[in-house]
């Protein structure tokens, strides 16, 4: 070993002299000498790496004080770097200089300098082709524009292959890349992440799973990848995104908040645009993994609680769930994970039934399905301890994920020729006020049933006016109806205007009278947009109603814009 150490020191001095000669002269003889000695120089670099990888960064500097000069001169010599094998060995040697936990400014500066050299190795030729390399490439029969990008690609492919081999070898320590080297490699990639040719290496690092008890990839690597992905500067496969968000939860949280910001800043009450933002975020696809879904869903829960059940948040949850279910079915028709893993606090049987809404449920079976949903929910909710809001809230939170059931219930109530089904009244009363007690909910049902009876009676009237319709959903009593009943009454009236024959002629006048506040106007816009969106998704054919809804929606949007 002592003999080997002495030989390495002797070789080190020789190659330091050679690099100085090559650096100072650019004659044809110097270039020929460089090419002649490249094989021996590469062998020296391999021996150097074998020695360096056994030391920490501080020991390397103590043993070889001028190692930076040697590697720096090598990295800036185009004839050395033109051979991709040299690039790989130089990268490995440079990784040995990086201090994993810099303790002072000197060590931090050394790390930055090393990263700069690595960045040069991987990207300099692509954007600043040296004349010598161009002549060299032409001599080989390649055009520089074809040859030089190939250097980076070959380097990346070599590192990706090594990572995969490292992953397959498992505990075979003789052939495994040391965890410290993988950590250094992830740090080196930080300034290079947005280079398209580096994406395979980024994905290989993200999907690499060793046997280390702690995370070995650099935290800044995860942050840089996530930021580049959110800004659309890189494109990653879903498997790599899943690994990123599972291995670095702050990145998942930031991705979800980034989606929330886009939804908030976008046009209110536009579910189609909301769907585009949600799908574009890749969160529904990644949420096929239950751990990711649970975290994203919890963030939706907090947003819902913080906004006191804002309609926009409810709509976002429903559209996200719809996109998630589509991704889930696309990935695996036979659900890979049980629904219990996605909704652990809710009734599994209820989750299965609610999920049917996204499938091909025939219109003739909607009423039967709605009654079944109502029965399951009522059994769960009314079995809870009086005064407890936790159980009802969890069931309601699951129900709002599939909010189309509530819209469907309102439409079915207005189609009832006989006594309105109590199951549907209960379902809507629960949807609008989940923490009410049974007595309060019964009172809401009575008030809504009275409104429904008035509307159905008016639908058979020969003379129908907008004033009559608004009076039907008003109280007509000495006391004001409770807020849930008020919301439900407006929902039933809006549904009546789109669905009943007589409602079409009165729709514009009735909505003009209703939309006397900004809040109510946005509520109506949200209803119309949600209805059109749902009808399109379910393939419901209602030409007259759809056209009316589109016209009213356009007019209300214009009214809001003029008001602002």
Structure in words:
- This protein has 564 residues and is an all-alpha fold.
- Among the domains are: 2-216, no CATH class; 403-563, no CATH class.
- Helix content is 74%, strand content 0%.
- It has helices at residues 2-24, 28-52, 57-63, 67-75, 78-81, 84-97, 105-127, 131-139, 144-169, 179-188, 199-207, 219-230, 238-247, 249-265, 271-280, 283-286, 290-306, 311-331, 339-342, 348-355, 366-382, 390-401, 404-414, 422-432, 438-459, 466-473, 483-499, 501-514, 518-538, 543-563.
- Helix 1 (2-24) crosses helix 4 and helix 26 crosses helix 28.
- It starts with a helix and ends with a helix.
- Mean pLDDT is 82; it is low at 124-133, 170-174 and 475-479.
List the SSEs and their pairings.
Blueprint: H1 2-24, H2 28-52, H3 57-63, H4 67-75, H5 78-81, H6 84-97, H7 105-127, H8 131-139, H9 144-169, H10 179-188, H11 199-207, H12 219-230, H13 238-247, H14 249-265, H15 271-280, H16 283-286, H17 290-306, H18 311-331, H19 339-342, H20 348-355, H21 366-382, H22 390-401, H23 404-414, H24 422-432, H25 438-459, H26 466-473, H27 483-499, H28 501-514, H29 518-538, H30 543-563
Helix pairs in contact: 1-2, 1-4, 2-6, 6-7, 6-9, 7-9, 9-11, 11-13, 12-14, 13-14, 15-18, 20-21, 21-22, 21-24, 23-24, 24-25, 25-26, 25-27, 26-28, 27-28, 29-30
């Amino acid at each position: 070993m002592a003999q080997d150490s002495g030989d390495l020191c002797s070789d080190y001095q020789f190659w330091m002299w050679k690099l100085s000669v090559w650096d100072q002269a650019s004659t044809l003889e110097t270039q020929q000498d460089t090419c002649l000695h490249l094989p021996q120089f590469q062998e020296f670099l391999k021996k150097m790496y074998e020695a360096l990888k056994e030391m920490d960064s501080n020991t390397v500097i103590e043993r070889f004080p001028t190692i930076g000069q040697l590697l720096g001169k090598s990295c800036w010599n185009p004839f050395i770097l033109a051979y991709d094998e040299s690039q790989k060995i130089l990268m490995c040697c440079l990784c040995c200089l990086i201090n994993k936990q810099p303790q002072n400014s000197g060590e931090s500066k050394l790390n930055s300098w090393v990263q700069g050299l690595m960045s040069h190795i991987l990207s300099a030729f692509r954007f600043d082709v040296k004349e010598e390399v161009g002549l060299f490439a032409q001599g080989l029969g390649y055009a520089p524009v074809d040859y030089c990008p190939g250097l980076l690609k070959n380097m990346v492919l070599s590192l990706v292959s090594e990572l995969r081999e490292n992953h397959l070898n498992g505990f075979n320590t003789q052939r495994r890349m040391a965890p410290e080297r993988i950590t250094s490699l992830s740090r080196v990639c930080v300034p290079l992440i947005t280079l398209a040719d580096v994406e395979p290496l980024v994905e290989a690092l993200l999907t690499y799973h060793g046997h280390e008890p702690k995370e070995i990839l650099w935290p800044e690597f995860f942050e840089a990848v996530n930021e580049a992905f959110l800004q659309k500067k890189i494109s990653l496969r879903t498997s790599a995104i899943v690994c990123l968000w599972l291995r670095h939860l702050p990145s998942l949280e930031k991705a979800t908040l980034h989606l929330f910001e886009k939804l908030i800043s976008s046009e209110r009450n536009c579910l189609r645009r909301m769907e585009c933002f949600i799908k574009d975020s890749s969160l529904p696809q990644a949420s096929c993994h239950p751990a990711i879904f649970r975290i994203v869903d919890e963030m939706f829960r907090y947003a819902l609680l913080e906004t006191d059940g804002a309609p926009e948040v409810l709509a976002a949850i429903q559209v996200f769930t719809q996109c998630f279910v589509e991704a889930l079915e696309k990935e695996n028709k036979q659900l890979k994970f049980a629904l219990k893993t996605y909704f652990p606090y809710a009734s599994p049987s209820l989750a299965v039934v609610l999920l049917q809404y996204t499938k091909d449920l025939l219109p003739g079976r909607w009423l039967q399905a709605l009654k079944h949903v109502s029965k399951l929910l009522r059994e769960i909710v009314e079995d809870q301890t009086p005064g407890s809001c936790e159980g009802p809230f969890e069931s309601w939170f699951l129900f709002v994920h599939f909010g189309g059931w509530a819209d469907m219930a309102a439409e079915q109530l207005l189609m009832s020729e006989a006594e309105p089904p109590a199951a549907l009244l209960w379902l809507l009363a629960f949807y609008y006020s989940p923490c009410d007690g049974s007595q309060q909910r019964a009172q809401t049902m009575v008030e809504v049933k009275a409104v429904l009876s008035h509307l159905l009676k008016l639908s058979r009237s020969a003379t129908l006016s907008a004033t009559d319709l608004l009076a039907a959903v008003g109280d007509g009593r000495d006391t004001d109806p409770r807020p849930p009943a008020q919301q439900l009454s407006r929902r039933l009236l809006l549904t009546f205007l789109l669905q009943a024959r007589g409602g079409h002629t009165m729709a514009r006048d009735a909505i003009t009278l209703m939309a006397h506040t900004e809040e109510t106007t946005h509520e109506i816009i949200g209803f119309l947009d949600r209805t059109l969106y749902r009808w399109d998704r379910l393939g419901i054919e209602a030409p007259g109603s759809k056209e009316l809804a589109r016209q009213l929606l356009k007019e209300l949007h214009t009214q809001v814009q003029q008001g602002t």
